[in-house]
Design a protein that fits this description.
Keywords: Nucleus. One of its GO terms (biological process) is ubiquitin-dependent protein catabolic process. InterPro entries: ELC1 (IPR039948), SKP1-like (IPR001232), SKP1/BTB/POZ_sf (IPR011333), Skp1_comp_POZ (IPR016073). It is found in: Nucleus. The protein is of the alpha+beta class. It contains 5 helices and 3 strands. A 3-stranded mixed sheet has the order 2-1-3. Strand 1 and strand 2 (27-31) form a beta hairpin. Helix 4 packs across helix 5 (97-107). It is globular.
Length: 109
């Protein structure tokens, strides 16, 4: 998802990457163009919130195992959003279905 050399650039307002921090303090670096595919993250980075300046978004109630899958989904969605082929299934483990459904609703993605 991210090249390590890009991670230090998140602190700039025009950064290519944003940092997403889970409730258990795991950090995920993702390209801004992928992050804004989430309506919630897009709003947070829109200039009205502190996150727009720092490019760091904290999710107090989203654990890392869920945020990791959300990041994967945003990358998956980006890859197929403009494609002319049908989007293949994004498989998830059935035990995580409810948790991911709630996260998808929160993230608006």
């Amino acid at each position: 998802m991210v090249a390590e050399k890009k991670c230090g650039e998140c602190g700039r307002p025009d950064a290519e990457y944003v940092k997403l921090v889970s409730s258990d303090e795991q950090e995920f670096y993702i390209k801004r163009e992928l992050a804004v595919l989430s309506g919630t993250i897009k709003s947070m980075l829109s200039g009205r919130y502190e996150e727009d300046e720092s490019n760091v978004v904290y999710f107090q109630y989203i654990p890392s195992h869920v945020l990791h899958i959300v990041c994967q989904y945003l990358s998956y969605k980006h890859d197929f959003i403009t494609g002319s082929t049908q989007m293949p299934e994004f498989n998830i483990h059935p035990k995580m279905a409810l948790e991911l459904f709630m996260a998808a609703n929160f993230f608006d993605c």
